[in-house]
Design a protein that fits this description.
It contains 7 helices and 5 strands, in the order H-H-E-H-E-H-E-E-E-H-H-H. It is α+β, with helices and mostly antiparallel strands and about 190 residues long.
Length: about 190
């Protein structure tokens, strides 16, 4: 495969060809071309000592929910692909899930109209984005303030219990305002009984 648009083989049908070559014992070689993944990561200025690539943002809500759960606790810079017709929904989701993180929205990388924009997620105005081309999103890793120990919420939880809130309501409330998993919150809440 020879292409003038990035590096085939990552979230791309070129991967199918490589698998078939291996399966059929056909020799091949890979000579890296421009890679939007690494280009976007480096251009973001975010920590690139360790990073995670998640591919395209899923279309199904249940799959998105699983992905966002992983990203909430990700301690590495995360790289995702998105499409022009889905980007606005993604940004709206990110404003709810990761409002205090930074996001690099890059498009058409290694091509004529490439663009890099870096935002605080809570401040992104989707009306000001160009919704054309292929997008590579680079999400800042989980910040320290998001990864506080659950025990730091002990007083808040005890007050919620005192106010008559159910365990289910407390878990729901903390899920919205923290990055802890539902199970971690639940286990900690019931340990205070």
């Amino acid at each position: 495969i020879i292409t003038d648009q990035g590096m085939p083989g990552i979230s791309d049908p070129g991967h199918i060809l490589i698998k078939e070559c291996i399966k059929n014992n056909i020799s091949y070689t890979v000579l890296p071309g421009p890679s939007s993944i690494l280009t976007g990561l480096i251009a973001s200025g975010f920590d690139n000592d360790r990073f995670a690539f998640y591919g395209f943002i899923p279309k199904k809500n249940s799959d998105k929910k699983k992905l966002y759960e992983e990203l909430k606790n990700e301690n590495k810079t995360s790289i995702l692909f998105d499409t022009p017709h889905n980007l606005e929904n993604t940004i709206n989701d990110f404003k709810i899930e990761f409002p205090n993180r930074k996001l690099a929205i890059t498009r058409e990388l290694s091509k004529k109209f490439e663009e890099y924009q870096i935002f605080d997620i809570k401040d992104i105005n989707t009306d000001e984005l160009t919704l054309k081309g292929e997008f590579v999103l680079i999400l800042e890793k989980n910040n320290e303030d998001e990864s506080l120990d659950i025990s730091s919420y002990k007083e808040q939880i005890l007050q919620m219990k005192k106010n008559g809130e159910s365990t289910k309501d407390i878990v729901k409330s903390l899920r919205k305002s923290t990055t802890f998993s539902k199970n971690d919150i639940y286990e900690f809440v019931i340990s205070l009984d």
